[in-house]
Structures are given as C-alpha cells and as structure tokens.
Amino acid sequence: MPGFNVQTSLRCVFSSTWPSSKRGVRGVRSGATCQCVAGSGPHCKDFRWSEDCCEGQVQHMHLTDSAVADTATVDFIVSLVHWFFPSFDYRWLLAEVRDSLPKELDFLNEGRNCEKAMENFKKLSPKLASQISVPHIYWEYSTQRILAMEYMDGVGVTDVGAIKALGLQPADVARLVSQTFSEMIFRHGFVHCDPHAANMMVRAKPGTKEPQLVLLDHGLYKSLDPAIQSNYAGLWKALVFADSKKIKEHCIGLGAGDDLYALFAAILTMRPWDKIVDQSIDHLVVPDTPEEREELQGYASQYFWEVSDLLSRLPRVVLLLLKTNDCLRAVDNALGAPVNTYLIVARTSSKAVSEMERKGSFSQVWKFWDKLDLEFRLLTWKATALLFGIKHFMKSLGFS
C-alpha cells in the first residue's frame, strides 16, 4: 500500500483538518474502493480496544473517473452479448451497477448506513443490540471520499482457530451471524448486502464470554418494500418447514413465475426440489461431498438459460438478497454449518410474518398463538430428529 497515495489523498480532501498522528498513519487493509489507514487522533481517550483508535477509509485516487469507464465497458459487453444472443439478457446487471456504484463511492452515505443499521438494532432488536458493534463515525473529519471512524479490533468471522483462542465457540458465532442478518432481512427491512467474511469480525463482548459481531463496510444496503419483505419472510418460513404450497406462493409473489418457482427455491437453498420438500430437520443443510458438489455444478450448466431467464424476472433487490444469502452460507459453512441456524431463520421469519399479517384489536392474541404454533412445530421437528438419531445409533450397535 503506497504511503504516497494515502498521504496525497488525505491532503487533497482534508487539507489540514485530518487528525494528526504521533506515529503517522499506517495501512491496515485495502479493498476494491478504498485503502484503510489507522493512527492516533483526538478521540483516542474514548477508545477501549487498541492503541490506534482512528481509522480512515480513503477512496482510491481517480476511482470516480475509472468507475465511469468501467460502467461504459460493462454496458458495451452486456449489450453486445445480448445482440448476438437475445435470450442472454443481463442488462439488469448494468442497471444495478448504475444504481449501486454512486452510493458505494459516497462514503458519507456509507456512514449514514452504518448509523441507521445500529439504530435499527437498538429500536427493533434491543435484546441483540449489545452483541452487535459498528464503527463510530467522526463526521467532522469525513467527506464523500474519506470516512473517518473508530478503529475496530477483532478476529476474522471464519477464523475458527482465532475464535476458539478468544474462548468463544464457532457455533455461537454462527448463531449470532444468523440472528443478526435474519433480524435485518425479515424485521428491519434494511439489509447489509455484502456480508462476506472480510466485512465481519468477532470479539468477546466486554466482560463476558459471549461473541460480539463487528459489522464493517456499510456501502451497499438495500431497503425492502413491504411486499417483498413479507414474501421473502414467508418464503423462508415455508422453506424451513418444507411447505411446498407456500413455497410456490411466495416464489411467485417475488416474481419467479409459475414455471420457475422451483428453480428459484433451488438457487436460494442450493438444494434440489426433492430435498427442499423433504420433512427431515437437516433438509436445507448443504452437504460438502465432492459428488454432491459435482451434482450442483451439473444443475448449473443444465439449467443455464432458465437461470438467466429467472434472474431477468426478479426485482433487483431480490438479486442482492440472493448475493447476501450466498455470502452468509459461506460463513456458516466455514463455522461448521450448525443445523440450528435454520431454527433461527424459522423463528425470525415466522415472527416477521406474524407482525406483518396480524393487525387489529386481537393482534397480540393472534401473535401469541402464532408463537405457540411455531414452538410446537419446532419441538415436534426436533423430537423427530432426536428419535431418528437414537434409532440410527442403536442400529449402529447392532440392534434392529
């Protein structure tokens, strides 16, 4: 990371207002849109986690100009391919780039997203809020090209060895990640759409052995309109409980159509339809055997044109939810993919559906009934799984 570029960018944007460092700034990481530097500053007296309390997210020089050229290149390639192959229509990708890129390059917008996300947890998910942390933004030093914020410490969210070294359990981290994004998607309707492993860290919550999730890179967020949020929550509730009728209903509600709803469910879960509607507790867990990976790759090539058609039908925000889902699946798999993350999805999506559908004088009564119904179904589900496990164990010992 060339120090000249960092210092030049700081001088161009901040002039003399950038907080001085006794040791000078140092590079901590680099991403697609920015370099991140850390150093001491006037707010260090309030910092608990590290000597370095200020972090500057510095946009790469000339990135705005190159982004215009990159967008034009994508436009040309997508249009050319569509001209040669009319059924291969990825012009929706260009529309999404044009919508999202200016927002990602505006670091003030990223700061606002960061604060709004945390405020949502405090207001809508207060029991979880203490286990979520985002950087404090120093607005007086921030511009569209530099975001000045609190330096956040932690270990990688998929670094199992480092997580255990902190005295934390990977399964607890997996549950926290699942809870965090289930609340965001199904209840807040304001979603971090780039939750890959590099954008999340874990540390011990102060004074406890509980994990605290640090969310980084808040440039790409999407707000879900009520219809999409309701259908997406209903779809995941149906997927967890293998309710084929409701799966079809909500897939169609999200734009998949009567002909491609099963394909949409398969893309969302990375499971074939016969597994999706299987009543076993682990029917949505993606196996990691070479044979089944090869089977999934075969499906991708077999249904290439249908997938292309489906992606062109879906609202763009749903496409970003697919991306978010893939990122979270990768994190979950790295942490051991515990089955109980699907129980979290079931509870949160069911609660969201109940909150959206139960209105009027007796709404609290109906919500309580919905909760009882959900917990009874989950209890039955887990009891069935336990009995199956006992039967399998006895059989392995030679008992018929």
Automatic annotation (TrEMBL):
GO biological process: lipid homeostasis; mitochondrion organization
Residues of the signal peptide: none
Protein name (database record): ABC1 atypical kinase-like domain-containing protein
Family: Belongs to the protein kinase superfamily. ADCK protein kinase family.
Annotated SUPFAM superfamilies: Protein kinase-like (PK-like)
Any coiled-coil regions, as ranges: none
Pfam family, one: ABC1
Assigned GO CC terms: mitochondrial inner membrane
PANTHER family according to UniProt: AARF DOMAIN-CONTAINING PROTEIN KINASE 1, ABC1 FAMILY PROTEIN
Domain ABC1 atypical kinase-like: 58-250
